[in-house]
Specification:
Elements (H helix, E strand, L loop, with lengths): L34 H7 L1 H8 L42 E5 L3 H15 L7 E5 L10 H6 L7 E4 L6 E4 L1 H12 L7 H31 L5 H24 L10 H14 L16 H11 L2 H8 L19 H4 L2 H4 L1
Parallel strand pairs: 1-2
Antiparallel strand pairs: 1-3, 3-4
């Protein structure tokens, strides 16, 4: 591999990492005619020029012992690994989930619908322990062939309807009950734009920044820098929007807020990946204002408890089958 650096770099130039240590994202703020200067200032090029620990083979093969935190549940194939039917409760909606940010979206949505008086939104929330591989059971795969939480089975009609992917579930429920989604026009377009912004952006936060900062078996400066930059860019996108708008889609609270809050609200409060100081989350004051406002909603507080298996015992409601469970079946009550 040729690790030499060019004597000259044309302007404008976009660095492969998208940025530099103390430099702008486009163009070189110093002379690019001296390779030694580039090596001294550009941490990404320096790393690429001085390390060659891995050369990809012509054909990738799966290494089961890759050392990652989730190596025991990651695999390059889909489908069930074992037979296990899913439980079914008494309510029209059956949710199979865990209180990760994606899972919290749906439980907050369901609690908000119930708070609005939609009795048909009553639900059973069954715990799926993803670290134990519950998502690879045959029953779960039948509801979500992608083996990811959350998964919803809507049994309110003559035939059960499966819905997977958290954004799809939010949209299904909003349309089903005619709530938390503007009926049309610019307001609906704005709401859906922010909903799908979250669906497209969060993988860079979780699978990118979160993985390399918190979960990877080794710390890679290039990867952490790359995704930290993207996480901060996303926070800035939200901060600029919320400087002009109470909620993401305008003056009304919608499924856009419900989708974004569990990820970016937790991030800006320093509750994701223990990365608050690293990302200087205090800089995003408008996101903090919005986050705190949503956190005061009773439905949001309840939704965050459902299928939660960590934190204070009083905040953990492993399964939810009745509204009274919040008062009687949290882990502090069952201990």
């Amino acid at each position: 591999m040729d690790t030499s650096l060019p004597d000259t770099v044309p302007e404008p130039y976009t660095h492969p990492a998208g940025g530099w240590n103390g430099a702008s994202a486009r163009g070189w703020p110093w002379s690019a005619r001296r390779p030694h200067a580039v090596r001294q200032r550009c941490v990404h090029c320096r790393a690429m020029a001085t390390t060659n620990d891995y050369t990809p083979p012509r054909v990738w093969t799966w290494n089961r012992d890759n050392g990652g935190r989730f190596a025991n549940i990651n695999r390059p194939t889909a489908g069930a690994t074992h037979d296990r039917e899913l439980p079914v409760g008494k309510h029209p909606l059956q949710l199979y989930s865990l209180a990760t940010p994606n899972g919290v979206k749906v439980t907050v949505m369901l609690e908000e619908l119930l708070a609005l008086g939609h009795a048909g939104a009553e639900y059973d929330a069954w715990l799926i322990r993803i670290n134990d591989g519950d998502q690879f059971g045959s029953g779960f795969v039948a509801v979500n062939p992608n083996s990811k939480i959350p998964a919803l089975l809507d049994r309110s009609g003559p035939e059960p309807v499966r819905v997977f992917e958290s954004g799809a579930i939010l949209l299904h429920l909003a349309e089903k009950f005619g709530a938390l989604l503007p009926e049309g026009g610019a307001a609906r377009a704005e709401c859906l734009s922010w909903l799908f912004w979250q669906m497209g952006s969060a993988p860079f936060l979780g699978g990118g920044f979160g993985h390399f900062y918190a979960y990877a078996p080794a710390k890679f400066e290039y990867a952490i820098d790359r995704y930290a930059m993207e996480a901060k860019r996303q926070l800035d996108v939200l901060n600029r929007r919320l400087a002009d708008s109470r909620y993401l889609a305008g003056d009304a609270y919608t499924i856009a807020d419900i989708a974004v809050w569990p990820w970016y609200g937790a991030l800006v409060k320093g509750q994701l990946y223990e990365a608050g100081e690293f990302l200087s989350v205090h800089e995003y004051g408008h996101v903090l204002r919005w986050t705190d406002e949503i956190a005061q909603r009773p439905a949001a507080r309840r939704g965050r408890m459902v299928n939660r298996t960590w934190g204070q015992p009083s905040s953990q409601l492993h399964e939810r089958h009745d509204a009274t469970d919040f008062d009687t079946r949290t882990q502090d009550k069952l201990a």
